[in-house]
Amino acid sequence: xxxxxxxxxxxxxxxxxxxxxxxxxxxxxxxxxxxxxxxxxxxxxxxxxxxxxxxxxxxxxxxxxxxxxxxxxxxxxxxxxxxxxxxxxxxxxxxxxxxxxxxxxxxxxxxxxxxxxxxxxxxxxxxxxxxxxxxxxxxxxxxxxxxxxxxxxxxx
Length: 156
Prior knowledge:
Elements: H1 8-14, E1 19-21, H2 33-43, E2 48-51, E3 54-57, E4 66-68, E5 72-73, E6 76-77, H3 85-89, E7 92-97, E8 100-105, H4 110-113, H5 117-138, E9 144-145, E10 151-155
Parallel strand pairs: 7-9
Antiparallel strand pairs: 1-4, 2-3, 5-6, 7-8, 8-10
């Protein structure tokens, strides 16, 4: 979904979005019931937990306070093209803001951040934002609370 602005290899080599500490556990991807069923069918007993109106992975933290997504394998995401929508659009996030729902950009993805505001805006306007907002209309659980560290790109 992000191929126009981020190469799959660059994304797969980084993996920053697949490792969480206790302060960013809110970033764990929201999962549809169908995806939870598919993950269980393909990978066995992967623990899930309810968060708000959705489901997410039940993250277990190591002694150093980190947790890795259970779908992260040696070669990247084991779900491939079936990865959660939140993962497919990261480093973009939908967040509740005073003006409505905003498409935002995480400061953690240096590659997309270094693409420049104009290129990011062109990408967002090329149909990406329409796709993201349409998905959120059917799956509002992917909308997160606003984090001021994230840059607002567009608000609807």
